[in-house]
Design brief:
This protein has 276 residues and is mainly α. 72% of the residues lie in helices and 0% in strands.
Length: 276
């Protein structure tokens, strides 16, 4: 009984410690966003005077609303295209027997190991050749480089665990591979699609290097670049209050999405872990 009580207390302390460690940076960003420039470097765990002007100024001094819309379009289109391609690839890699399948999977995984800067010049020439420079389409194309590999791997792992009997029964009824994929497999892949889609959305939403390189005007930039280019009105004014306010604004949607789909995320991450 005593050991059980000690273990519960230890678990509670561990949970509190991890929660504080994880949430404190976000809490401090909120606190900093509500401080005036003169109070930013004072250690106050809650500001005595709430400075809401930081939130208003980022929309007044630059097209931050347009930047948010750009990020939504780019991240959303990346997720849609990524899931469409990944579902087709996962079906082929998990259900179709062909020579070199394992090597192809390893090649897809190897692509994700390259740092972004290694492919930056090649992607720049490709996007410029397609006429997509300073356009959200160029960002969508480039983001698929690092979202597709892990999406294909996760969906392939999940699809491999689906019972063969479902596919065989559908084939006996005369179903084509497309019907099997869309009518039989997709309804069972809800949690995995939500998980991979959300991970791809977060990766595209937070990406900075490609967005900085492949956009030129402020109207075409996404929020990470817009935040990185925020500066003080004068050389003596600290921009950190506005940077923190902008960071809070663009982080809240991600937090809401995770909270809404948390059950699906857990199911999707554990799907295929155990084969019955």
């Amino acid at each position: 009984m005593k050991k059980s009580l000690i273990s519960r207390i230890a678990s509670l302390i561990a949970v509190i410690g991890v929660s504080v460690f994880s949430l404190f940076p976000f809490y401090w960003a909120i606190v900093s966003s509500l401080k005036s420039p003169s109070d930013l470097f004072k250690v106050e765990y809650w500001p005595t005077h709430l400075e809401w002007s930081n939130y208003f100024s980022i929309f007044q001094e630059q097209p931050f609303g347009k930047n948010i819309i750009n990020s939504i379009i780019v991240a959303g289109s990346t997720v849609i295209l990524c899931l469409f391609v990944a579902v087709l690839a996962a079906y082929s890699l998990s259900r179709v027997e062909f020579k070199g399948r394992s090597f192809l999977l390893l090649t897809i995984l190897a692509v994700s190991m390259f740092p972004q800067v290694a492919v930056l010049s090649g992607m720049f020439e490709l996007i410029r050749a397609f006429g997509l420079y300073n356009h959200w389409g160029g960002l969508t194309l480039s983001y698929m480089i690092f979202t597709l590999p892990f999406t294909i791997w996760l969906l392939t792992t999940f699809m491999r665990q689906l019972p063969r009997e479902l596919e065989q029964a559908a084939m006996m009824d005369g179903a084509s591979p497309w019907i099997i994929l869309t009518k039989v497999f997709l309804p069972l892949m809800g949690p995995s699609l939500v998980t991979t889609g959300l991970l791809a959305f977060i990766a595209a939403w937070n990406e900075f290097l490609f967005a900085l390189t492949f956009t030129l005007s402020s109207d075409a930039r996404t929020v990470p670049v817009a935040i990185g280019l925020i500066s003080g009105a004068s050389s003596f004014e600290s921009p950190w209050g506005r940077i923190m306010a902008a960071s809070v604004i663009v982080t809240v949607p991600l937090v809401i999405l995770v909270l809404i789909f948390q059950k699906n995320i857990v199911s999707g991450l554990t799907a295929g872990a155990v084969k019955e």
